[in-house]
Design brief:
Elements lengths: L21 E9 L5 E10 L8 E7 L6 E7 L7 E4 L8 H10 L13 E9 L14 E7 L2 E4 L10 E10 L5 E10 L2 E12 L4
Length: 204
């Protein structure tokens, strides 16, 4: 019930190539759980923004009244990676020793925001639900930590997919929960939910 909402949310998007990308933003209104109405859209050309600085943008909504005020910073991606199991980062003993030194007690106040890393190896899923008429699924796996999100590739026509991917996240809040969700890719339609597990970082 507000015409001037303040969300104050931060989202991190990770780019691993030099392709041209547009940030697409949609604003929706909810009447209840079932009814939603699109209030407007806007687009930001990420490649046109100056890097290594925070850009304050006021974006008018297309074909609708109102505007969005956003802070967007484009910076080199640090601490986040996706790799194959055979070239696992942090697997080198020398690198692990350097990280242990970086996060030892005597260095713990050097950078308060630098809490550490979480490395997740997504190996496989077993006995997934069949989402297609063929009795198979096209599963992929999404990992979310705070507002960070990374995902595997899709393994087509398989109920026992093997991804064998390694994901490395920088930890921003030790109280965050790692959420791992498996979806079925469904062409142009929204993906179907196949299952989910939530792991509090404090339990690791």
């Amino acid at each position: 019930k507000s015409a001037n909402p303040q969300w104050r949310e931060q989202f991190d998007f990770h780019y691993f190539s030099d392709r041209k990308d547009m940030l697409d933003i949609e604003v929706w209104r909810k009447d209840n759980k079932k009814h939603e109405e699109l209030l407007g859209t806007c687009h930001v050309d990420i490649t046109a923004l100056p890097t290594k600085q925070t850009n304050c943008l006021e974006l008018p909504l297309e074909k609708h009244p109102g505007s969005l005020l956003m802070l967007i910073a484009v910076a080199p991606c640090t601490g986040v990676s996706i790799s194959d199991l055979c070239v696992c980062p942090l697997g080198d003993p020398t690198e692990r020793q350097q990280i242990s030194q970086r996060y030892c007690i005597k260095n713990s106040f050097r950078d308060i925001k630098d809490i550490g890393f979480l490395q997740v190896k997504v190996l496989k899923a077993v006995d997934l639900m069949a989402a297609d008429f063929s009795g198979k699924s096209d599963p992929f796996c999404v990992l979310e930590l705070g507002n960070d999100m990374l995902q595997t590739h899709t393994v087509y026509k398989n109920l026992n997919p093997e991804w064998n991917k390694v994901f490395t996240f920088p930890i921003k809040d030790i109280h965050d929960v790692l959420e791992v969700t498996v979806f079925d890719e469904d062409g142009d339609k929204p993906p179907d939910f196949l299952g989910k597990v939530a792991i509090p970082l404090l339990s690791v």
